[in-house]
Protein 1
Amino acid sequence: MDDTLEMPTAAPKPDAPQEREEDEQSSGDEDQGPDWTKIPGLNVARPVIPKRGEKDFEPIAQGGSGLQRHVLDRSRSAMLEALKATRTISYKSVSHAIWYPPLARAHVTVARGIHFSTMGHSVARPTSDTENAKKLQKRLELLPEEALYLVERGAMYCWKPTDSPPPRTALLDDMEGVPMTVQQAYAEMIGTADLTFEKYQVYAYLKRLGYVVTRAKPPSPDYPVPPPLATSARQHTSILGRLYSAAVSWITRIARLFVGGIDWWRPVWCRGWPRRNMDNSSLFRSLRFLPSGHDVPLRIQSPPDTPTSPYQVFFHLYKPSTQFKKTAPPPPDFSVVVVNARTSPMPTIAELTALFGELPELPPPVPRKRMSFAQQKLAASSSAPASKSSPTVGPKTEVSLARRALSWLWPLLSTAKRETNARPPNPFPSLKMGNKMVVIAAVDAGTISFFRFGQGVFTEWPMA
């Protein structure tokens, strides 16, 4: 069509009622862009975000027509006017805090909302009363990332103390200091208490997702930390215990000759004493010429002028479903390391070994029971009458004295039947998850990528 025929005119274009109904039905499509020109009143105190609608045209390589350029300019100007609107919050739901640069903490004077159930910690600070006698008074304080997050989302006013008297303002006469803008809060809080811009980006991103984020290393003695990790220290047995274990192992070796420790149908065992231990595990054990396992120390010598590794756990992460108590936090669900992707290389084996040395061992994953729909329906129908009926207890079978003495003398008799009937566990979930796990958040110019590193357990699950 000719470009001159598409020039906008003052006469409105009539819309068919059928097209209006289709536009209303398709306004909830999240794949389309917002129409900023449909904002009802740009001068209101709280602008309403418009619904999304269908696109009138698609961009082409030759450039749009006059009508398309006019629609784009009108939409762009409407978007800029909407973004210029002043953000307002309710005075009854906003909190107040005072930022102290020497302490790198924000003292919360008025706490409102549900944010403080998982943020902030109580600290005893000396305060001077009228008699100039110092007393310890507990108060709620926020770390720099916590205070900056609340200021950025408009949930808290932050003030900075000053020596000059502040101007008198309505509803804010009880505050001492000058208010801090978001830009000033970024400039004041980033770089204090080991907080970098990348770490704050990861913190704010995880908080918006609903996670509870805390510091891994306490910045002060008053900061609550989870219970210490359970160390797997070797238990020193007594002399009687050692003698008992030696006697049991000697009796077990003798019992294997008569109980069934030898399979006479296996041809490897029938070729004499030198080839007695020729099973699969012994063969693979003899072929191993390098020590395996994570208990073996690394033979890596680092130079004395090596800089500090950036791969250190900085945040503890809790799922939203975890029962979290601020004064006594439970063990974390994840441990997060934050690095700058443009300045930090890939972690070396020495850095990963040192990182895994600080983490606890994870329990093996619970095996999933896969059941078909028919099996689930049958199990649900059979469980209902079983719960109503009273359980029947069978008669107890008494074990004779001779059998108990025999099981005490030969422990292999009581465990051989259970070992044969037990189903071996599936090793692949444990191999996939690993013995220990850490999450590394790599920030590349604002783009956050999460990587999970696990400590393998291949030596604990032999495949042959």
Protein 2
Amino acid sequence: MGTIPVLSSLIDNPQHDQLSSDVTQPSVAFPGKSSVIEAITELHKEKSQQSVWISATDTFFSPYMPVLVKLTLVSGIVHQLCFCAFSSLPFAIGQVQDAGLIFLSNMASDMVKAGMEQDDSADRILATVTVSLSLCTVVLGVGLVVIGRLRLAQYVRMLPTCVIGGYLAFIGWFCGIAGIGLMANVSQATLTPTLVLRHSDKVAPGIAGGMVIYALVRRYRHMAVLPACIVVMLGIFYMTMWLFGATFDDVTRDGWIRTTDEPPQLRRTWDYLRLDLVNWSGLPRLVTSELGMIFIVALSSSLDVAAIELELNDQLDYNHELVTVGVSNIVSGLTGGYTGSYIFSQSIFSLRAGIRSRVAGLVLAICQIVVLILPFSLLQYVPNFFFGALLSMICIDLMYEWLWDVRTTITQAEHMISLSTFLLIQLFNVEWGILLGVCLYAICWKTGIDVGDLKISRQQRDNEVKYGAT
């Protein structure tokens, strides 16, 4: 695939072409269908990412949400096209990502408070925030390119497999909780068991659907199973609507479909990026948050690459992939967008669906472009449990494999470290949980406890299950 000369020089890597050819095998799935599924799922996620703005003091951004959400969608398209062009992984999904958005949310909150204290107009505050966050995204991208060029990302490869396994299980848990919150129409921050029980009629179909899809995919391992399950799920929902004489307004009012705002015209997407109104004096206060964001995004992106490497059973160039993330953020920021990286859950979804073609990523970007220019929202026709079922399937798959199934191919100590890392991430956060997991691994190794090899590939584990450990 051809690349833009300037950007190509940033990510030049002699191993890139060879690696791409190694992992680019004939596709055994329907890349188009999988990408449409991912596009709809990503659209719903980008809709929910308006929390970046809503969390920034009171309801300041509420009147501007339709335009800001559309700008987030544009950013997702830019990220996906960059990953299609530069990543060595043909199945890679790159979109706006939460790790950077958390920092952007705090930055937005600080700028709104500062603007209000200085009695700035709403237009001035809005311009300052949107332009500043785009510039911070560009700086993030430059920082990631520098880290990749200095070849610092490769040290993540030293993480033990059992620790990464705990992280993968957490990703599964995160997907499951996100799916439940989505089906219950409740944010993850306010999700409680009581609310889940209250909305059990909305949550149960999605969880059941995810379990059925997982069982069928694991049982039959055929490329048609997943698309067939999706068609059946949607068919049952629409048939039930027809039998009960319900309209889309009825099911939306009852909570089966999330309420959506009417999308604004495409030409209004960049209305708020007005350089003449920006209060430039507030930018220096963002330096500390910017440095923290660079570190966290570099770490989280490298962890995603490590997890994909484990799944793929092929050595990846961490530094090249981090430079790819950096270039993607530079382009996103220059187009008024926000931070992004690999979306691990959807990349694994594509990998396990048998996608080995860049066509899938391109179809995803095209679907997002179509959604961008449509005068209505597709989400008003898709039930919440559809997304919940897909997220539940990913949850069951990752948690079962890395918390239970893996126990037969690693030592007992490694299994306990994997479980402990999963729990530590829950108690603290991803960074501290992984660090404590590594410390636990080091203590076991130092005291002579058998913690196996530092790395064990997915293929090795499959072979041990098939032929027996030697």
Protein 3
Amino acid sequence: MASVKNEDIQEDFTDHSESEDSNFDDEDELTRIVPPEIEDTRQCLKSRHILGILGFLGFANVYAMRVNLSVAIVAMVNKTAFPDLPDNDTFNHCPQSPDSQNVTRKDGEFVWDEATQGIVLGSFFYGYVLTQIPGGRFAELFGGKLVFGIVRVLEGMGEGVTFPSMHAMLARWVPPLERSKFAAYVYAGANFGTVVSLPVSGWLCSLDFLGGWPLAFYLFGILGIVWFVFWIILIYDSPTSHPRICRQEQAYILASIGPQDEDEKSSIPWFSLLKCLPLWAILVTQCGQSWAFYTQLTELPTYMSEILHFDIQANAILSAVPYLTSWICGILVSIFADWLLSKGYLTLSLSYKIFNSIASIVPSLGLLGVAWLGCDRLAVQLMLAIPGAFAGAVYAGNQMNHIALSPKYAGTMYGITNAAANMCGFLAPYVIGVIIQGRETLGQWRMVFYLAAGINIGTNLFYVAFSSAREQPWSRSQRLSSIN
């Protein structure tokens, strides 16, 4: 079977090259995605599918080890050490259901108030943020396989490189017409891991064996080590370095993506990145989405426990429902988005903006609904699950935008935006702790939800105004010149 080399593809790109016009143009000739003339292999299980499956499981374990603390902290904290502050406004408190009144709660060993709990919940993100940009660059230099794989056996600081390194691999492995749904399959592992981890962690925390809550950390740590063995054996950094890939699949990928620069050691154009307004648009909307996401991820179990009075097992299961619906919706929406692109019904830029808006606005309306529904436990669950499902549309929104702007520096760019976004991982819990200040009331929690919804919707408007799907001139010129 014929193979395709970088030199064979460069001519097609050179023919369409144009003068370096404004960096902020929404579209140009190259944003129109044309299927390659070469057919894909007919094998059922392709090499890039194996990357997708193990990437999915890797991110599932990433988030399982990230969210188990959100559940475990309910069992770790000694609640009786901090009596509720007096509040004569009965409207601000939900009555306990008969089921919750019969539940005996065990006090934990840690005497932490809400502010301290916010710091603890956010502590993971200190190291996580610091390694985002180095992680993306290391993946570009040394390959995403090794960087993503090794750090999965570590926690905290090592975990920061996972998303940028996977982004660098997707830029090399996934044809443009498959990127939305492929990214949904891989990154939706985060939702799957959350769906599994929350109820399993809740059940483990309810046990007496080994103190209960430590089991949540032992289990997912061991699973991460098992996953690492399969990753190292089966995954390669690019189609050209894979010794067992079908040559027809390799030819199809290279013809779809275009020239691949195997020498990634050229310097990063930091000044051009700093001036790139579309990159700032991605950064801003990711910050807004992360604020809403981490508000729900880290604080929802506490809200379910302290306001709606769910016991820890029911709390964990119900907290997982929005991530289950988001996982399913993310895959379906991404398949639909790729279909719209393949039919030419949407341009790439318009597709990014529409689906990013869906991912930001609809879940934010759900948070506003939760703020007003008060103590109606069933309605709150529905409001979190149904509008929250549309958060999965983000995979067809800004998540693949980095690759469109610069395939060569997609890992570094994702590291930049994800580092900024994940600062919300420790800022949001801390701010929420300051807002609550020991007053676990509906009024205080309404302010939390209003803030998250307002930030998410506002930052999306910035993205709609300034995002672009055009590969930037500084990326295109360096990528093509390095292949000559």
Protein 4
Amino acid sequence: MYLLRSFLLLITLIVLFVSPVHSQQRSYNHDGGLWGEVKRVTETIATPVEAAVNKRYDKLSDRGKFVAGAALGFGASRFAVSTTVNTVKSVGAAYIAFEALEYAGILKEARSTKEGDEIIVKTRDYLLRTADGIRVDIRTNLNPNAIKDRIDKSMKRDKHGTTGFGFGAFLGFVL
């Protein structure tokens, strides 16, 4: 269940935040590692899904847009809270497991061979590229000014759906 929730959160974040991140031109590509691969794959999936959802959503009445926004906001907030809690638990468990492996000498033994060193270096670089991509996306998309601009644009484009999303998210965090 945790893996499914994590996967759905990842897909949701990518669908919501792919466009702003890819539209920025930078001299260094921060989309390396697993994060970049996931973004490339989901971008091809997200575009037709987004078009189909927008087509149906635009046909809704104002009340329907409010209800749809509230349902999405509620679900997104509940999903985000539970996934965040489970992620913190998993990171804590991984930390304890690696400390136990280090204490038992298993990690030291893996570092003692040349092949082990190469694997560790490649793994470290891959994980660092992945973490860097996530870091840059978070910095770009969770910037308070970017959030304010996104809310302002959403309110101008669709006041009822945006208000419903905020209402649903509030209920999801409170309940």
